[in-house]
Amino acid sequence: MEEMAKITIGDETFELPVIVGTEGERAIDIQSLRKRTGLITYDPGFNNTGSCKSAITFMDGENGVLRYRGIPVEQLAEKSTFVETAYLLINGRLPEQKELTRFSVLLNDHSMVHEDMRTFFENFPRGAHPMGILSAMVNALRFFYPQLEGLSETEELDIIVTRLISKVRTMAAMSYKISLGHKVVYPKPDLCYCANFLNMMFDSPVKPYNLDPDFIRALNVLWILHGDHEQNCSTSAVRLVGSARVNLYASISAGISALWGRLHGGANQAVIRMMEEIHAAGGDVKPFVARARDKNDNFRLMGFGHSVYKTYDPRAKIIKKMADTVQAKLDKSDPLLDIARELEEVALKDPYFIDHNLYPNVDFYSGIVMRAMGIPTEMFTVMFAIGRLPGWIAQWKECFDSPRWKLSRPRQIYIGNNVRDYTPIEARTKTML
Question: Choosing from 110, 229, 306, 313, which is the catalytic residue?
Answer without folding.
Answer: 306
